[in-house]
Structures are given as structure tokens and as C-alpha cells.
Amino acid sequence: MTAEATTTQTPGGLELPRPPGVVRRFLGAHPLAVDIFVAAFYLVPSVIGALVASAVDPTPQELIHLVLSAVAGAALLARRQQPAVVFAIATVLLGTSVFLGRDMDVVPTLFALYALAVYRSIRSAWVAFAVTSAVTVSTLVVEVLLAQAKAFTPLETAAVPSGILVLSFSVVAVLIGSNVGNRRRYLNALIDRARQLARERDQQAEIAAAAERSRIAREMHDIVSHSLTVMITLADGSARMAEAAADRPDPAERSAQAMRLVAETGRGALADMRRLLGVLRDGEDVSAAREPQPGVGEIGELIETFRAAGLPVRITITGLPPDDVGQQLTIFRVVQEGLTNALRYAASATAVRVVIVFGPGTVIVTIDDDAALHPSAGHGSGRGLIGLRERVGLYGGTLEAGPRPGGGWRVRAVFDAVRAAAPESTASPTAETPPAPSDPETPPTPAPSTTTKENP
């Protein structure tokens, strides 16, 4: 389908404009009919004229001219696919028609020059014009020499006017073909560019969708892994206390309290999953209740949940937390993942310490446990740590997870802090912010601009 006839919607969802004019749309939509019309436009008069001339004065020259005209007319059907071959046949007819007792037959050559300019290139059309000029001049020179030697009957039209006429029509054919060909190639380039942009748009949409799916998968892992780990631990402890509650009511009450906490944790996880998966549903009510993502302020509730599950957690927070919501969510998820792994794999731990240091330009989050046996290498899929590395990497940071030198396991995240720009009017030229401590386990005494909170 040509550029002028493109009226349908492209695969990229791009609807191209319809070309103006009913005639142009018809010609563009029926290229074979146009080729048949062009071939018949030349072939019918030529064949009829040759047949009439052969009937009046049958000679071998008339028969040869009839055959060449029929071949050239049939070749015009392939002017779009093979314009060079059509030009070669037309050039043979142009050169031999002089010596067949007729004037120069230039019509097939004109169609061939036009087809070269439109369907090949402008350069090939001008090269073909040079060949046409050479054939025309050389043929007419030979014709004049033979006519002067009385060996050939001269043409009805003189050689010089015939040559000028042929070359003039040839130039016009090349110029018209160049104009149409340039416009055609320009439109094709615009259409190709539009299709490329449409494909790039679709690819960007797919990339964005994949990134969103990855983000949702990380959130789902954090929610499900944390909640189920706490629920399983509480359920196991409740079962053990229930077995020992035959004659003592206190373990029975503790068991019931643990099961109530299991139910609350499950309901909270279910609500988080419904809210998170709501973005994946199309056509449903978008006015559902929305809650903000957890941040540093919710870490206390998170710690209490793990303490209720039997994990001996202590937390120390130094400095002012960043204002960026995304960074606060990252800090929350790092603490959540570290404590979840400790609850799952460090059952023998006697102390789990969470240290969060908010420096002037760096945030350091460390979760340590002292469990002698930490079989995390043989359990789990590792996707939680992979997701955390991606979260931390968004802020130019790193995440390390591995054994501690003195025993136990450590999860440590370090990344750049995003701070809101302070107004110039409130800035103090003499105020100094203390540097972040090099060891999170032994934080220095904070300056007045920071706060230290330790929850035993």
C-alpha cells in the first residue's frame, strides 16, 4: 500500500489521515488498475497503427516494430516493480524505431523515466536521462549520415527537432517523477517515524507496567512475609501454651491473647492486600478508602508486633528522619524485612537490636541479632532482600546482609538522605550539624539539633 493510499489504522494505534481527493484515493488503492491503464494507453494505439501500416504496406520493418511495441507495452505493467528493466526495453525501442521507417517512439521511455524517479531514486532517473540523451543523439547522427549517403530514407520529422522534442519530454518526465517521488518518500518517512513513535509509546507503557508490577510484587512480599511470619510464630506459641493450660488459667489467657493478635495481624494484612491490589482492577470503584504508606512513625507499632511474637527487640533512633515519604517507606521496609528474617531464622536469638541513624546527608539502618545458628541460606527465596536492594538503590545506597563478625546476622542499609531545603531566613550561620557516627551500635551524644530515642 502506498503512502498516498494509507487510510487504515496502523498496528501502533496510529490513525493516518486520508489523502485528499477521490481520484487520488482510488488511484492509490488500485495500483494494478493504473498500470493496466498506462499500458493500454500506449499499447492500443501503437498496435492498431502497426496493424494498419502492415495491412497497407506489409514489410519486415513494420512487423519488427509491432513486436517491439507489444513487448514495451507489456513491460509497462511492471514499471513499479522493475523500472530499470522497463527502461532498458524502452531504450531499445527508442533506438531501433528510427531505423524501422518511423519517427522515434519515446512514450515507453517517458513512462520508464517517471517510474525510476518515483520508485527508485532521483539519481537513477537522471542517469537514465543521460543514457536516453546519448541514445537519442547517437541514433539521430547515424540517421543523418545514412540519409546523406542515400542509404536510408530520412524521417518525416527532421533529426534536430526530433532530438529536441525527445530530450524536452524526457526532462519533463524526470522532473515530474522527482517531485512525486520526493513527496512519496517524504510521506513514507513521516509515516515510518509516526509508527516508530507509536511503538516506542507502547514499549514505554509496557516498561512502566512492568515496573509497577515489580513494585507491587515487592509490597506484596513485604506485607505477606511479615504478617504470615508473625501469625505463624504466634500460632505456634499459642498452641504450646494451650497444651500447658490444662490446670493453669494464666497460660490459657496468654494463648487467647496471642490468637487475638493473630486475628488482628491477619485482618491488617488482608486490608493492605486489598488496598494494594485495588490498583490492578479496572472498571471498579476507585473511591475506595486509601491509607498512606507506612513510615518512620509506624516503626513503633511494628516493633510491638514482633515483641508480641516473642522476639526480643530493642530499637535506637538518632537524629531527625527525612521528609521524603519514599525514604520513610524504605526505612520501614528495611526494618520490617530484617525483623521478619530474625523471627523466622533466628529463633535462638537473645537480643535483636535495631539502630537507625539519621545523619545530615546519610541514613543508616542496622538490624543485628546474636543467634548462634542462622540457617537463612537454606530457606526462603531471597526476593525480599532483592526488593530491598532495589528500594535502597533508588536513593544511591547499598544493602548488606550476612553474618556478623562476632556471631549472629546483620542487615545494614546505607543511602543518601533527601532533605527539604531550609528557608534562608531561618538558617543559622553558626549552627553545625554533627556528623553521622561510624558505628551505629555506639552512637555519640547527639547535638541539640538531633533527637535520640531508645526503646528498651
From TrEMBL:
It catalyses: ATP + protein L-histidine = ADP + protein N-phospho-L-histidine. The keyword Nucleotide-binding applies. Keywords: ATP-binding, Kinase, Membrane, Nucleotide-binding, Phosphoprotein, Transferase, Transmembrane, Transmembrane helix, Two-component regulatory system. InterPro entries: DUF7134, HATPase_C_sf, HATPase_dom, Sensor_HK_TwoCompSys, Sig_transdc_His_kin_sub3_dim/P. Residues 24-184 form the DUF7134 domain. Residues 432-447 have a biased composition (Pro residues). Residues 212-283 form the Signal transduction histidine kinase subgroup 3 dimerisation and phosphoacceptor domain. The chain crosses the membrane at residues 32-56, 85-104, 124-146, 158-177. Residues 327-416 form the Histidine kinase/HSP90-like ATPase domain. It is an enzyme of class 2 (transferase). PANTHER family: NITRATE/NITRITE SENSOR PROTEIN NARX-RELATED, NITRATE_NITRITE SENSOR PROTEIN NARQ. This is histidine kinase. It comes from Leifsonia soli.
